Amino acid sequence: MRVIATAAPAMWLALTVLPGVALADEASTSGGNTAWILTSTALVLFMTLPGLALFYGGLVRSKNVLSILLQCFAIAGVASILWLISGYSLAFGEGNAWIGDYSKLMMSGVGRDSLWGDIPESLFMLFQMTFAIITPALIIGAFAERMKFSAMLLFSALWLMLVYVPVTHWVWGGGWLGAMGLYDFAGGTVVHITAGVAALVAAVVIGPRRGFPSTAMPPHNMTMTVTGAGMLWVGWFGFNGGSALAANGDAAMAMLVTHISAAAGAMLWMTMEWFKFGKPSALGGVTGMVAGLGTITPASGFVGPGGALVIGLLAGFVCFNATLFIKRVLKIDDSLDVFPVHGVGGMLGTLMAGVFSSTGLGVFSGYGFADGITSMGGQLWVQLVGVIATVVFTAVVTFIILKIVGALLGLRVSDEQEIEGLDIVLHEERGYDIH
């Protein structure tokens, strides 16, 4: 009895402080994972504001710079409100194979202690909200310098709810593509294919800018663009690394392969410019970097650094040539190259996730070329189905949305307003007022 009495305080201390044997409600929430996803959420929002805003802002002409910056900010506001009201519930509510339900309308039933895995569900909702913000924001690069602000707002709101939300449920919310076993770690289908295909459809429906393709329309401020690109590169660590939803080896490897792919994409794009045009450019470097980032995104949780190197090089080569093909052969004015960079990159990366996660490359797995997760043939088929379904659904619904918005508000400004610039015409402001 004396031994037991003496040992009791020590036993109680051990039960209350040792990991895994603490009180149940304390053990259910991981402080480390929560801290990492809090950080990742801030990084992903940083990608849009100010990263994407500055990246796109520098690429347009000076008379339209404020319009692009404001569009990014306005989309952040609209998407956040819609995600709170019903977007999150329809994307991640139980529902069925195609769409979620209204069980989490206005975050109904989600309190401070509600968990998604071992992190607060409110944090998971906020992390996913930042993805819902940046995806429609990517699309504006396709119709930059010519779309009405009112039309852009209505289009973005409808597109978020009718395209982004259903595809998110298909892949991440318990829908049919997720059930098939589609590999999309951080948004190859959900973010990049949807945004890229919508951008292509929008560019075709709205039509080119005045003077395209005969009139040169160079970026007005490459310093701004390179600054924004650097923010995107840093923010992408949260985008891909945070998608592990844990502070663990998966997150670390996702960050490593993200960085390798971005570096490879940038270097190959500049090298191809160098050989083709005689000089490398800052624009080429940052565009290749974004191509590398977008292409590795779906595969970032399934490949090693060797696979990432190949994916980044492929991104630089394929997206570079896709950009030339869209503008010079098809003569489609996708103003800021959203489809050839994000759409093509997303398709390529989604397919490569099926290659470099394969046991079929087992001989190379020791060099980081394959994780050996699954067989190549079956997974490639699933990846292809995911790509095709996302492309077709996005293209059809985006076209319908554009036609509805066009009938209600009109899609683009007049020729005279386009010549004067959207900053003054739509917002009565100038990006630069130098006396």
What labels describe this entry?
about 425 residues, mainly alpha, Ammonium transporter fold, two-stranded antiparallel ribbon, 16 helices, 2 strands, globular
Question: What's the SSE blueprint?
Answer:
Blueprint: H1 2-17, H2 24-27, H3 31-59, H4 65-92, E1 115-116, E2 119-120, H5 121-139, H6 149-172, H7 176-180, H8 188-206, H9 222-241, H10 249-277, H11 282-296, H12 305-329, H13 338-355, H14 376-409, H15 415-420, H16 422-427
Antiparallel strand pairs: 1-2
Helix pairs in contact: 3-4, 3-5, 3-9, 4-5, 4-6, 5-6, 5-8, 6-8, 6-14, 8-13, 8-14, 9-10, 9-11, 10-11, 10-12, 11-12, 11-13, 12-13, 13-14
What does this structure look like?
The chain has 435 residues and is mostly helical. It has a single domain (36-427), classed as Ammonium transporter fold. It is built from 16 helices and two strands. It has helices spanning 2-17, 24-27, 31-59, 65-92, 121-139, 149-172, 176-180, 188-206, 222-241, 249-277, 282-296, 305-329, 338-355, 376-409, 415-420, 422-427; strands at 115-116, 119-120. It has a two-stranded antiparallel sheet. A hairpin with a 2-residue loop joins strand 1 (115-116) and strand 2 (119-120). It is globular and about 60 Å long.
